[in-house]
Amino acid sequence: MTTTTTTWRELAAELDAADPLAGVRDEFLLDSAPGVTAYLDGNSLGRPLRATATRMTAFIEREWGGRLIRGWTEGWMDWPQQLGDQLGRAVLGAAPGQTVVADSTTVMLYKLARAAVDAAADGRDEIVCDTDNFPTDRYVVEGIAAERGCRVRWIETDPDAGITLDQVRAAVGPRTALALFSHVAYRSAHLADAPGITRAVHDAGGLVLFDLSHSAGSVELDLDGWGVDLAVGCTYKYLCGGPGAPAFGYLAARHHGVLRQPVQGWMGHADPFAMGPGHTPAAGARALLSGTPPIVAMVPVRCGLDLVERVGMAAIRAKSVLLTRFALDLADDLLAGAGVTVASPRADAERGGHVTLRRPDFRAVNDRLWEAGVIPDFRAPDGIRLGLAPLSTSFAEVLEGVQVLAREAGR
Q1: Do the Cβ atoms of 98 and 283 come closer than 8 Å?
Q2: What highest taxon heads this organism's lineage (predicted)?
Q3: Which of 244, 259, 289, 327 could make a disulfide contact with 115, Cβ separation 3.0–4.6 Å?
């Protein structure tokens, strides 16, 4: 291919014209950020939907303002499970009754990991985790290990890659209580072999917990089919739930009534308004709740899930693959000779929804990109991540972003 600027523009235009999700972009508030010509950070914070602004106003005026405290008995109490079931159906590949929306990812991660460790058989005193997992995941397992007298068995992973099945097989064994991994690596976007890893952990007699924060809304998932025990994730990235949006927790039905999360609050009680002595957990995944659900924060999550369910994860994943492949092709051409290293998998089946590029001075380059109206993000020590949200990102936007990156990297 002749890789002139004109050729890239023509190709981006062709890809946008052929994109079956192109019209969905109009459902986002694309013009609300003046001066931003390329938003490439959807893997950190998704753009807001127009419907979110409308529904938030309606909620405040009619449901909160109009119904006041009556809103709890008229439906709010069930929102964590209702949104959880929709998330399970539209995104996670999970049957009803196994997912709730509540808390932050860190809190939900602690609840599920601690429940798994507490339920482990005698002699199972190891938590397996990888050294390049997201910091929260590593910090949480270290804290639980200190609380429960366990040992963390670390798997050394390459930041430019991710956890592999062979590494997991070599690390798990008769002392494994829990194995915790990210399905899509936050640095490289490496897509882990979730079904294979799950089988390997189960063969060793342990439980597996996946962090789906960079997966949910970006890649297709089948938690029930894979046999996953536990999962957590956020809703503010590809699901467009907004900054600080509540997380989700998945607890496979076979563990209901067996695994007990440690933060025993009134909303996870079988009868919250009995307010009597002792804690009797609610049935099913509702037992994962602790305090009052963040109802206002759930409104944007509902909007995001409605859109994802309408479009379908198969179509979203198909565009995600094309976007990241296009970004890699652009990087190979426009950044050739600039000392930039691609730190994401080349194979489509091994790559999540973002592309990471590395160079020692990229922290300063990222600052200049923001000043120029191109918004990716930086991950230490030297990586710029191009987060390509399939529902709101165009191919022309990717081209603009990489062209400006090439200019700034060439200074």
Answers
A1: no
A2: Bacteria
A3: 259
Architecture of the domain defined by 5-49+312-409: Alpha-Beta Complex (3.90)
Question: 153: buried, middle or exposed (CB in 10 Å: 19+, 13-18, 0-12)?
Answer: middle
Residues of the chain with pLDDT under 70: 1-3, 411
What residue ranges do the domains of the chain occupy?
Answer: 5-49+312-409, 75-309
| Residues taking part in catalysis | 134, 211, 236-237, 385
**pLDDT at position 161:** 87
Report the interhelical angle of 5-18 vs 313-334 (nearest 10°). Answer: 180
Rounded to 5, what percent of the chain is helix, strand, coil?
45, 15, 40
Q: Dump pLDDT digits (tens) for 264-322.
A: 999 999 999 999 999 999 999 999 999 999 999 999 999 999 999 999 999 999 999 99
For residue 59 the two structure tokens come to 């909620």
The domain made up of 75-309 is a member of CATH 3.40.640.10: yes
pTM here? 0.97
Q: What is the pLDDT of residue 6?
A: 84
The Cα 333–Cα 329 span in angstroms is 6
Q: What is the pLDDT of residue 2?
A: 46
Residue 31 burial class via C-beta count within 10 angstroms: exposed 0-12, middle 13-18, buried 19 and up: exposed
Q: Which two tokens stand for residue 128?
A: 């397996």
Q: Report yes or no: 123 and 174 within 8 Å, Cβ to Cβ.
A: yes
Helices first, then strands: H and E counts in the chain = 14, 13
